[in-house]
Design a protein that fits this description.
The chain is globular and about 80 Å long. The protein has about 200 residues and is of the alpha+beta class. It has a single domain, classed as Umud Fragment, subunit A. The model has no long low-confidence stretch (mean pLDDT about 85). The chain contains 2 helices and 14 strands.
Length: about 200
């Protein structure tokens, strides 16, 4: 093999190795995710770019629903990325409000879990009107019991979020990871980088 061929082969090996590592990292460890809507305002804004920890909740075996090396399960308050139950080709991001076995209900916009009112400093309400039980579940629903291996999730922008109140629960097999850190933020309306948000941990 000539020196030129050796050099080309070495470059090829380096590129292939880098691509394989990048694919493994994206599949099993960290994935980038862009916030497309305002359902998580004020915690996450449209144009925020975040990194999602896919390793924390376990590694999903390809072509199976089983997970291995699960360090923990999603907990109340975690912000998770998951496959949208009504269209698994799409990813959604919401906050876990109730876990399996919890009894959850909402009374005039106030969430109660297992009979206790939940302190939610991250939640915001932009519509002062109140929608009664039976009309739609935005402000009043339940009580309902969260099934095994399921999660009840809601957006922090409570009056502007399409979430478990409307389409039900998230299955553990559809959870892709936990929101970790905000690495970039772009305000498209002002065409400006939100420098003050970059590097912030998500909680």
């Amino acid at each position: 093999m000539t020196n030129k061929k050796k050099i080309i082969w070495e470059y090829a090996k380096a590129i292939i190795t880098a691509l394989i590592l990048a694919m493994l990292i994206r599949t099993y460890i960290i994935q980038a995710f862009k916030i497309p809507s305002g359902s998580m305002i004020p915690t996450l804004l449209v144009g925020d770019h975040i990194l999602v920890n896919k390793f924390l909740y376990g590694t999903k075996i390809p072509f199976k629903d089983k997970r291995v090396l699960m360090f923990k399960k999603p907990e109340r308050g975690d912000i998770i990325v998951f496959k949208y139950p009504e269209n698994p080709s799409k990813d959604f991001i919401k906050r876990v409000v109730a876990i399996e076995g919890d009894v959850i209900e909402s009374k005039n916009k106030m969430v109660h879990v297992n009979g206790n009112k939940v302190n939610e400093p991250y939640a915001q309400h932009t519509d002062s009107s109140m929608r009664p039980m039976g009309i739609e579940p935005r402000d009043n629903f339940g009580p309902v019991i969260v099934p095994k291996n399921k999660y009840f999730v809601m957006g922090d922008n409570r009056d502007q979020s399409y979430d478990s109140r409307y389409w039900g629960y998230v299955d553990i097999k559809d959870v892709k990871g936990k929101a970790l850190i905000l690495y970039w933020s772009w305000d498209s309306e002002k065409s400006w980088v939100r420098f003050g948000r970059i590097g912030g941990l998500i909680h």
